[in-house]
Design a protein that fits this description.
- Helix content is 60%, strand content 0%.
- The protein contains 5 helices and no strands.
- By secondary structure, the chain is an all-alpha fold.
- The chain starts with 8 loop residues before the first helix and ends in a 12-residue tail after the last helix.
Length: 93
């Protein structure tokens, strides 16, 4: 039996390493944003207004629908939550 291992679930599910890297970055960012928003303890309407989003858009974010957000959109939302981004570039394994 041939067992293949992957560094992330996205590498196993997505066709190219480039797409997997993008999806991994988006998922990591979405999780950090969700955690920050949860600390606010606000109703979705108020949290959405604070971020300049519609409530349905915030709902997609809080439900983890990463496929509905570009990396660029997530960077903008993260900044609106008060998170600072730092990108680390390393050699691929």
């Amino acid at each position: 039996m041939n067992t293949e291992t992957f560094d992330s679930v996205f590498e196993a599910l997505i066709d190219t390493p480039i797409e997997a890297a993008n999806m991994t970055a988006r998922a990591d960012l979405l999780l950090a944003i969700r955690e920050r928003i949860r600390t606010w303890d606000l109703p979705q309407e108020k949290a959405a207004a604070r971020l300049g989003l519609t409530r349905p858009r915030l709902n997609d974010l809080m439900r983890g629908k990463v496929d509905k957000f570009s990396l660029d959109a997530l960077v903008n939302i993260a900044s609106a939550t008060g998170l600072a981004l730092r990108i680390q570039v390393v050699e691929a394994a």
